[in-house]
Amino acid sequence: MSIPHFRSSDVPASAPVPVTFQTLQQKKEAGRPIVALTAYDYATARLVDEAGVDLILVGDSLAMVVMGYDTTLPVTVDEMLHHTRAVRRAVRRAIVAADMPFGSYQSSVAEGVANAVRFVKEAGAQAVKVEGGAARIELVERLTAAEIPVIGHLGLTPQSVHRMGGYKVQGKTAAAIGELLHDAHTLESAGAAMIVLEGMPREVAARITSEIGIPTIGIGAGPDCDGQILVFHDLVNLSFSPPAKFARQYGDAAALFRTAVEGYRRDVEDRAFPSDSESYHLAKEAAAALAVPAIPRRA
Ligand code: KIV
What we know:
By secondary structure, the chain is α/β, with parallel strands linked by helices. It has helices at 21-30, 42-50, 62-65, 77-90, 109-123, 137-145, 161-164, 174-190, 202-211, 232-235, 253-269, 284-291; strands spanning 34-38, 55-58, 95-99, 127-129, 150-155, 194-198, 216-219, 227-230.
């Protein structure tokens, strides 16, 4: 008797055309928005991919939304690899990018390259994301030379939470705007394939987007970026924290899951689940055999 089960071989046979960084570059040039979203596990990555998202980021935000930490800082390379592998197994069309967690590239360029290689080799990531601007130039150059596409990340960089003194919008003064523009240009010159712009005034993100040749993906950076990214759990109300101003909710998975789990609990308590039709049955002969008195044990 085979029991239906959700598994990777259920992926539909017809293969979609995979997205590449060339596709994203063409989208920027044609003014067609790039759609990106985070995902951290097989089931959600599969839904996100099948919905036609261009890029799936296994973000270190998983430290907060999946693991329950207060910041992104504690998640380790091994934990990120574990989640990236799960996402990789689900995705057939989108680019899968992995976030390099805090501590995996700050100590030395060599360590950053070695960790990035792990994401590609051990988890099947097609790109890595690193936070920061001028300080990351050598790393971005080395990764690019090693054929690993790099996504930069500027503005509100969550791994800098202690330096920033909280999760605050960045790029509000002339000096800060100048620095962001300089960082964006130097990341592009170093070979970055695209840049995430997070938590900055719309006008600043628009200026960076129009000045650089590679795509920008905004989160809390207004509508003028080349694309947008959100955290999956914010999109479906699973974050258990008050939503940020930019985090539009497109569904209420919390309500859906709550209703489902409460219904299940009630049904089990009331012996309404499982029903007879949800039970497996013995064949007639076996049932008849069961009615025979127990066979005496041999001495
Ligand atoms: O970790 C993350 O999810 C991110 C995106 C929000 C850009 O860095």
